[in-house]
């Protein structure tokens, strides 16, 4: 039997009593442990699942927030000193850990079809591709995501939001939290990995450096899933030119490219588009209105060739077609539908075919329909965590202080200091929010010195922002993580710089 629901832990009554005395239902410091078995890659894997709340402490040691986490630990491993630990974050900022938790690396995942589209009735099923066979995993919900909340002091006063809601504030308190978690669970000897998705890539990039600098905790690997710019600057002509390869991917999927391109494989077409974007288009965009008219017309024709858009559209936008307009316009004259932002395989139906942006994100609406009931059911019925709190799929974290974002440069510096630290980037070709080509650009910036190429890798998948929703990519992406963990857990190889 896959699932054995045995309650082996008790809620800490005093913590609940304290929470309720403060007129808030937030548990402060509790755990519920259940035992399970699953089958991964054909092998039976026993494990424990700990659904818990661990505090964030202020400088005086008083709890100022309580973070929900779910910790999966393989239970047939007697000595975990060589057992990797993966610490997982989603993004937003303000997004809960639900997405990767019940759709990617965890032992239980959403019921969806092979292409990643929701099926009813919504629910949970086993994940035969989970990385739990090779690593333990903890999914962390930052403040105001999931069931995580700020805590009032003895006077009933809430803490200052600024200590949580900002690039650097987020990194600072989460570094403290991770340090406490690793200590409490006796995982200091374990190889440690950080994985983040979307804005979570900014979070884990900064965390890798912060843990190394302030906690002396050295990380073996960082996995960036659908990365943001992580603090690297690529506005202006670079950002505009970088859009084209994604346009090519989405247009190829919807059969909107010329036959000469459509008959080729996606990756072959993307290689052409990338080469044109970097080596020819970028220098032209730099000249803007001073570009020679004949060269501008040639660029318009070439951009139309690789984007599926009309020459008129590109001309009217001075070679700078906005993402919103692309999502609205690509299929406008064919079937009058829009395409998705986070996953451009999805189609939407607007009230009017006219306009310069879609009315809604078709893919996100679809995902929320299925993820929300699944995670609420999973915590209460399978993990035994019952609460009156609302699970925040997207929590209130505004305003978010984005100033002084040096997460990427900090990760680059941490890689220089720590010869064991490897980085892998995973991106979906049809992601229009954090495009795969921008992800490649991020990788290039991480290797500014040219000396880190053997510790950086890029993996592309034929799906969107959450590439793991498509079953073929779920298998491949988890296998890529397995290989990355194995490579990065070995230790300093012969020839490392300090030998």
UniProtKB/TrEMBL annotation:
Q: Does Calcium count among this protein's keywords?
A: no
**What InterPro entries does the annotation carry?**
AB_hydrolase_fold, Peptidase_S10
Query: Could you identify this protein by its name?
Result: Carboxypeptidase
Signal peptide location in the record?
A: 1-19
A Pfam family matched by this chain, by name?
A: Peptidase_S10
Q: Which UniProt keywords apply?
A: Carboxypeptidase, Glycoprotein, Hydrolase, Protease, Signal
Could you cite one Gene Ontology molecular function of this protein?
serine-type carboxypeptidase activity
The answer to keyword Secreted applying to this record is no
Species source reads Dokdonia donghaensis DSW-1
